[in-house]
Prior knowledge:
- The chain has 14 helices and 26 strands.
- By secondary structure, the chain is α/β, with parallel strands linked by helices.
Amino acid sequence: MSQLARTLMIQGTSSGAGKSLLTAALCRVYARRGVRVLPFKAQNMSNNAAVCADGGEIGRAQALQARAAGVAPTTAMNPVLLKPLADTRSDVIVRGRRHAALAEVPWRERKAALWEVVCAALAEVRADADLVIIEGAGSPAEINLPDWVNMGVARQADAPVLLVADIDRGGAFAALFGTWALLPAADRARIGGFVLNKFRGDPSLLAPAPEVLRERTGVPTLGVVPFLRLDLPDEDAASLAERGGEGGVTVAAVRLPHLSNFDDLDPLAAEPGVRVRWVEGAAGLEGCDAVVIPGTRNTTGDLRWMWESGMAAAVRARAATGIPVAGLCGGYQMLGATVADPLGLEGGGEVAGLGLLDVSTELGEAKTTRLASAEWTGDGAFAALRGTTVSGYEIHHGRTRLGPAAEPLMSVGGEPAGAARGAIWGCYLHGAFADDALRGAWLGSLRAGLSARGGWEAHLDAELDRLADAVEAALDMAAVDTLIAGGPWG
């Protein structure tokens, strides 16, 4: 590219306002016009991570936005990722790699160490695009904290801003006005439009509020986006709820305190006749046809929670009756005999596992983050897959060793990446359930005649198109084009 890309920034009045999906929608809208568009988010806080081709981690939302734009994700799109380990402690991922020293730097002092990284990544993305859609974080009006990931980035990129509010929660007009009012005058001037998101009902009933808001702020409301139910990954575990249709089978998914990569279960929830029930207490396992323990960013801490809450005993009791149990990544580690943390990465010590698989895990300083293609070696429910491969990605600390009673389930590069014993199985491969053949084989083992509808990857792209169609119809795109380029765009 001969010059830096133009920019547009999506900020929100709060977390959960819909910034991530609106950014993805606009990436798809402009990509369909033939524009080379890339996403960017300076700093994300999420345990839902994706892996780039070089093995670096970024927020899963930015990977989805890259998919919407029709490009491969890179670490420049999300140069700083915070992965919470506890209420006051997070891993700090910088350009895709864990930065242990920065995890010890107080929150308010991190900008000095990270700002140059963010600016360099932003310049890299802008040099490779015609347009960059930038997502903010939280709200730009958190006046108790120094804000450099919202208006600081907008100033650096000279980006106009769309400010989004979640009208489904109520108080959207007050949130828009309050956010605008708390900003310095120069930052207010960057806000080129308000967007009301997740609206149910007749938009005409909103009058005269948008015009009153414009009279008081000078900022027009450029669109009302309807409430959409989409089979797309959520970034925040707070949005998780029971999903799926009536009848068929019920899969109980354990909602761990430090749950990560929970979108691993989305392909199951999208299947007709499959219900995914997220459970936090042992009672939630009643009546389920299978149990899945998903990934976690704090395996030892969440394993202790499993025992203290009674969930571990309940899962073991279900397994004893023949109910299938699957573990993904950290969930796989929990199914074994022990998880040891000799370096204190997650607090130290050794925690007893559920004892459902003859495996043991030791966490180590080296972290595996890679795209992976695994070869199926197991039998049982997956016998038909033996010798085939399934693609996904790995994000985990430590190594898991298989004992003599553990059947190797899959291998990556010749090394075991999963194990099984009867109806109990686990693996390190995130994205495994996105494989149509694997998903179909497992569902068929749960209930005769149940299969996967197939085409999960195509379904994701169709959902992104549906999202883009709705946003494009809801927004005044001519006004958005003018904000970006001063005239028609793309």
